Amino acid sequence: MTSTRPARPPRAGDFGLAKGGGALMAVVRFGTFSRYGHAAICEAIDAGGRAWVIEPMPTGCRRRLADLGEFVWSDVDLTASQAEQIVDYARTTIGLRYDWPSILGFVARFWGAKIRGRSGDHADQKLICSELVVWAYRRVGVDLCPGKAPGDVSPGDLDQWLDDRRRV
Length: 168
Ligand SMILES: [Ca+2]
Fold this sequence. Notes:
By secondary structure, this protein is an alpha+beta fold. It contains five helices and seven strands.
């Protein structure tokens, strides 16, 4: 749970992890024992050095201009084609609804419980933040959490993956 700063500036296709504001993201942090409650895909870096991010929110998946410092960014070596496909896919999810059962799953995780019947995961038609990242990366052959349903992957799990990767 201690991601260090990446070795390069963020670029399109990277994902970012953030503490996240509001009660809901506090619940995610609490339920998953992580300091991160939010995740987003970087769509582009604008001329002013800020990031256009695509992020599933309780009100639906949206695009927003964010300060780079709001997120700790991934630094996976993506090819130009992979980065483009990740961004293209993320764009198709704008407007999709939030996947509340995934959040319930994180709360249940805190109690050591598993909620049955979530494996369908609403596929990728309803999304939470970290789930979008997992779907987008799987499409280009990068599996951030092998064996896990994307809707079961928390921002903290992605943080763990980045950490494990940097330690190797
Ligand atoms: Ca889902």
